[in-house]
Each structure stands twice: as structure tokens, then as C-alpha cells.
Amino acid sequence: MLADKYIVNVEGVVVRDGHCLIAVRGEEEYAPGGLALPGGEVEGAGSRDGILEETLRREILEETGIEVHAEMEYLKSSSFVAEGDPVVDGVFLCRYRVGTPSIADPGEVAAIRWMTFQDAAAHPEISPWTRDSLDRAERKRLAQPCAD
Known about the structure:
CATH superfamily: Nucleoside Triphosphate Pyrophosphohydrolase
Shape: globular
Largest sheet: 8 strands, mixed
Distance between the termini: 47 Å
Low-confidence stretches: none
Number of strands: 8
Number of helices: 3
CATH topology: Nucleoside Triphosphate Pyrophosphohydrolase
Number of domains: 1
Radius of gyration: 15 Å
CATH architecture: Alpha-Beta Complex
């Protein structure tokens, strides 16, 4: 039996001063108008360590103009099927380093917002899986109060 080949995706819950960075999906994306975490697919990995973190730092910067610290904390992984392709998704807690939110591709990201965890989790356009990621990130963040 042949194993499925998975797309590997990473997402980041970026925190700054008790707020999280939230993207509003653009018209060219799955579920346009929905709230999402910045991130993307691992591409051209070759053979090296830290590829998930490297990919996530690159994707966050490309999508939002925000740089995060190199150190990240694993939150969760899941698998699902998107547009017929099996996907493995990893979510990390990231800490803001520098930058001002900016949109490089409006078709991909329609807006970028710093939101409280509570406001983001209660928003009507947030998916249950993104809400779960935010809940996990907030619990981990509060367990390390000086880490913000």
C-alpha cells in the first residue's frame, strides 16, 4: 500500500503585548473574509534542520511584514484534506520581533489586525480550528507571563 504524500503547512500565532496577529483571508483564498493565522506551505526544503520554523518566519514576513523571533513553541498538529490534497498542519506560538503590518498580496490577505485573544476567538468569521489554536497559544502564553 502506498502512503499518501502530504502538503506540509505551518501557521503561527504571533503575540505582542497580549494581542495576536490575525489575517483576514483575501478573495483568492479558501474561505475569503475569514480570520486566519499567517503561514504557508513548506517548499523546496532540501535537507536541513529547522525547516518548519524557517518556513513560518518567511511566510509571516511575506504575508504581513512582521518579523518574529527565531525561537518558536510548538502548539499542535493536525491533518485534513484541502481541495482534494492531504495536508499536515503544524501551529507554533511566535513572538513579535519588529515590523509594521503590511499587505503584499491583497488577493491572499485582505487585512491584518492585532486583536486580543478574546476578541479573535469570539469573532463570527473564525473557524473552530483557528479558535482552538488561539486557545492553546493563550494558555501557553499565560503560563509564561514574562515571555510577551
